[in-house]
Each structure stands twice: as C-alpha cells, then as structure tokens.
Amino acid sequence: MITAIVLIDADAARIPEVAKEVADIDGVSEAYSVTGDIDLVAMVRVRRHEELAGVIADRISKVEGVLRTQSYIAFQTYSGHDLEAAFDLGLAD
C-alpha cells in the first residue's frame, strides 16, 4: 500500500464542502481540517504508485475550491497505535 499525505489550500468559504468532496474520493482514506498554513490534510492510500496521479492530480486538485496541493509520499510507517495494541492486556483503565 502506498500512502501519500496531501496538504490542501482551499477557498475559505468552501472548506467544509471541499473536505467532504475530498473525503468521498476513492483512494482518500481520511480528510482533516487543520489549523496553520494549510486548510486540509488528506491521506491517500492506493495499491500502485501509478494510481496517485489519478487520485491527486485528476480528482483532488479538480475539486471546486481547491486552490493548491502539496503531496508527500510516505516511505515508512511508524505508529504508536500498533505498539500500544501489541502490549494491550485488555485491562480496564
């Protein structure tokens, strides 16, 4: 599985609509509205590298209200959630 993190600048008047449309695109697993220099972050997960252009350039970038995107392809996944699950004994907190 190939993961890309897509930073999205959006028209401020359309952020909720852009987020919903982006989240509904096949290949987008999550879309977050965030604070800071960008408006949205989308997590794109596809099976083949060649599919990234179809999701990011052909779909996300063409959503009405998307002004600009920056994409970062993940090389390796590190997750504290995986480590927690490995040591979880099922005891109540």
Automatic annotation (TrEMBL):
Entry-linked Gene3D superfamilies: 3.30.70.920
Pfam family, one: AsnC_trans_reg
InterPro entries: Dimeric_a/b-barrel, Tscrpt_reg_AsnC/Lrp_C
Domain of life: Bacteria
Ranges where the Transcription regulator AsnC/Lrp ligand binding domain occurs: 6-77
Protein name from the UniProt record: AsnC family protein
Source organism of this protein record: Occultella aeris
